[in-house]
User: Which sequence fits this backbone?
């Protein structure tokens, strides 16, 4: 009789790697996918061995694969030892260790609490110091996940409300607000894609797996399709978000520095730049992943050249934004100096203009884009992860507040609509 129980060690392994996968895909995805692939290989080799080995005579404990180790037939009353399974990520540290199981006098493997097989795999566990360190890292990552999930959810809510305001009020319809609305939409899609991708990955990696068929389903190509679609959508939304930053920068530069052109003609070009440019990079990246690295959720980056297909356009857009940002600041400084009435007031107005432009252009991206995952390690990597996740998740909320809720034009129009609504519904308004 083949046991169908997955050891707590294996469950912990998959869940721990999944937590790491959220934040460090280029590293942890490789470990996770390699572990699952080697587990499948170990399972296949075990079944072949069980099918080819001759059966002993008399009473014996049946050969089995208990989802953790491959067990031969056992003699009654004996302790059966096998080597630690080679699929463990830390196998090199425990390759000389043994995992043990007891064969009962009745010819059945000894059970714990009448359900789970008794097993001693203490020699196959990772060192306690490393495990304690990993637990601390995982708790930190869980905190990061809570922070950016709250940030994206809050941003999504604010962006949807801002989009409704810009589209419902007719007097707010102009090229500038159309561009803002597209930027809001790109932020909203980015937040939604991240939330959906996390939900799919959690469903994929946290599902209960007790039978061999469950592991095969977990590893199947069909199950990974939804996760890959979410991954592609997320990459497209991130690129679109950066290129709508670029559209905002180009439009503002044209207003302040460039010559006066027809806004109507250029708005169509803005749409192509914001929504069309990302397609030119996502499609080649999809092709490269499908042909060269078609594994699981396409999160692993075995060949970083494929990842640069996505990274280069983000870097390009960020650098152009930085250059435009610096040019616009020069114009703002010149105009403030020409019209300044007081030195302190001049400094405050310059600081306000700078802080307003930063979230609009996504200048903070330039700071982190050079500090890639391959170049950062240890505490520096966690600092980078925290600030990147925090800024990216709450940036949509900040942009919605600055360019919609705190906008004087928007507040004035909403105030007028509120006054008209009170005049049309006097019975619903409280009187002194």
Assistant:
């Amino acid at each position: 009789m083949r046991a169908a129980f997955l050891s707590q060690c294996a469950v912990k392994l998959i869940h721990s790697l999944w937590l790491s996968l959220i934040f460090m895909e280029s590293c942890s995805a490789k470990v996770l996918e390699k572990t699952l692939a080697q587990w499948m290989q170990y399972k296949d080799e075990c079944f072949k061995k069980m099918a080819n080995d001759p059966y002993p005579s008399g009473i014996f404990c049946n050969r089995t694969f208990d989802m953790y180790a491959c067990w031969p037939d056992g003699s009654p009353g004996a302790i059966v030892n096998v080597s630690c399974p080679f699929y463990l990520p830390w196998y090199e540290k425990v390759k000389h260790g043994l995992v043990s199981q007891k064969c009962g006098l009745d010819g059945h493997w000894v059970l714990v609490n009448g359900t789970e097989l008794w097993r001693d795999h203490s020699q196959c566990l990772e060192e306690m110091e490393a495990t304690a360190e990993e637990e601390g890292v995982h708790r930190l990552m869980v905190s990061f996940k809570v922070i950016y999930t709250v940030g994206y959810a809050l941003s999504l809510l604010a962006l949807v409300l801002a989009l409704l305001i810009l589209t419902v009020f007719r007097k707010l319809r102009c090229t500038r607000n159309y561009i803002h609305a597209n930027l809001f939409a790109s932020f909203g899609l980015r937040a939604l894609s991240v939330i959906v991708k996390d939900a799919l990955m959690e469903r994929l990696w946290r599902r209960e797996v007790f039978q061999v068929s469950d592991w095969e389903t977990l590893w199947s190509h069909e199950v990974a399709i939804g996760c890959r679609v979410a991954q592609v959508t997320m990459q497209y939304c991130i690129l679109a978000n950066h290129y709508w930053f670029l559209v905002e920068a180009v439009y503002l530069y044209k207003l302040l520095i460039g010559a006066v052109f027809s806004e109507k003609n250029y708005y169509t070009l803005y749409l192509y730049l914001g929504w069309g440019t990302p397609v030119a990079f996502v499609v080649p990246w999809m092709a490269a992943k499908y042909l060269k690295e078609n594994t699981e959720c396409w999160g692993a980056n075995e060949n970083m050249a494929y990842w640069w297909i996505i990274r280069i356009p983000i870097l390009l857009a960020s650098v152009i934004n930085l250059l435009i940002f610096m040019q616009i600041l020069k114009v703002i400084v010149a105009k403030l100096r020409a019209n300044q009435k007081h030195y302190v007031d001049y400094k405050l107005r310059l600081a306000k203009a700078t802080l307003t432009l930063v979230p609009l252009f996504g200048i903070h991206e330039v700071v982190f884009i050079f500090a890639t995952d391959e170049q950062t390690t240890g505490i520096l990597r966690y600092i980078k992860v925290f600030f990147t996740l925090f800024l990216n998740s709450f940036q949509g909320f900040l942009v919605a507040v600055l360019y919609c809720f705190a906008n004087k034009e928007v507040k004035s129009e909403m105030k007028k609509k509120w006054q008209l609504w009170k005049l049309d519904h006097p019975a619903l308004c409280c009187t002194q």
